[in-house]
From TrEMBL:
The lineage of its organism: Bacteria, Pseudomonadati, Pseudomonadota, Alphaproteobacteria, Rhodobacterales. Gene3D superfamilies: Cytochrome c-like domain. This is Cytochrome c. GO terms for molecular function: electron transfer activity; heme binding; metal ion binding. Keywords: Heme, Iron, Metal-binding. Residues 59-145 form the Cytochrome c domain. It comes from Roseovarius halotolerans. It comes from the Bacteria.
Amino acid sequence: MNKTVLAILAFFVLGGAVVYWNIAQQPQQVGHSMVPPDTSDLESGAPIVEVSLPAELSDQAQMGKRAYEAKCAECHGKNAAGQNGVAPPLVHKIYEPNHHSDMAFVMAAKNGVRAHHWNFGNMPPVEGLTDGDVKLIARYVRELQRENGIN
């Protein structure tokens, strides 16, 4: 072999070793990086998060709030703050729009949801809501989220 071929071969071997070294040094994440808060100090049924309310809700969010209060608040709490031991808060970064789209809310209400972020058990389907109702509820939740720095 001539020196040029050996130099090229050495370049690729060293480059591969550097790439491997960099990958091996990075911590491997399992699952998502959004961790639910520790609720062990809260009483059963207590709100899980504090929710700041917007000064004003859009007309759609006001309709969504009424539907939320009728169908969701019993479990997810007043103003979507969650209830310890019952259901999670929807005003939480886990439910930010880029992680749980509005369609995720529609599908959850329609089909229920297997527990995957929180330890509250599975959510059953919600009877008596149309897709339109849930989209209005999502609008209400999104406006609460934005007021609380979740975009």
